[in-house]
Description:
- By secondary structure, the protein is α/β, with parallel strands linked by helices.
- It has a domain at 1-76 and 204-283: P-loop containing nucleotide triphosphate hydrolases (Rossmann fold, 3-Layer(aba) Sandwich), CATH 3.40.50.300.
- The chain has helices at 40-47, 70-74, 92-97, 112-124, 140-155, 184-201, 212-218, 236-239, 242-249; strands spanning 2-11, 14-24, 29-33, 55-60, 63-64, 77-80, 172-176, 204-209, 221-226, 229-235, 251-258, 263-271.
- β1 and β2 form a beta hairpin.
Amino acid sequence: xxxxxDVRFAYDxxxxxxxxSFDLVAGGVLGILGPNGSGKTTLLRLLGGLLRPQSGRxxxxxxxxxxxxxxxxxxxxxxxxxETQLAFDYSVLEIALMGRYPHLRAFEVEGPEDxxxxxxALAETGTAELEDRSFMTLSGGEKQRVVIASALSQFGRxxxxxxxxSDGQAEVLLLDEPTASLDLGYQLDVTATLRRLNTERxxxxxxxxxxxxxxxxxxxxxxxLRQGRVLAAGPIGDVLRPDTVRALYDVDAAVERHEAxxxxxxxxxxxxxxxxxxxxxxx
Length: 283
């Protein structure tokens, strides 16, 4: 479905990504794991079509992203940033309606169907009761779920447009550190929301994170990225091991399946030597 092949990228001649390759299958949840500066956010922006690789190829359903019109791509893929900064104060419903822009013609305003789709997206993320609230007054966890709702409304199709898009075309959420800066309770809320979206509407996801336990709770496949290079990629149960955690973070860790949690858990034990935190390859 979404495929990266030998992707290279640099900022002003500073290499960031080196021959990165992996696949996301329809309905899958792929984690991009790595320390700060490993190139995760840059890779996510490339996958979303916001940047173009210097070499290599990123394809959606076999079509190079460079060949897909921006509005068409935006109806299939949505990026949820780590933080949402707004120039003005908006209501929660207005934030959800922002996701409708790929479906509007020039100078067209949102109509009743767009409002209904935005409200449905808020309901799916458990934020419908907040629609009249100011976005700026929400907690971090509430804000994140509202931004996810905006992404879902971006996928929703009007009845008049439904015949133009095959029902077999899966939607893709690209999430950049979706639980960063959230307390434990809101981390669980966001994780549960994403799991439900994947299970109930088969939303495919690529999640950039350095939180190994969050990835273990949600992802079925992972890519380990350090200094812009892929250390390992594959099913999370095969890839997430003490030796790969050591190679990725210079940390000795215990990696075991937690029976109550129902997934792998990672417990950091010791830092190895005087290794500098992360790399400086990318953003």
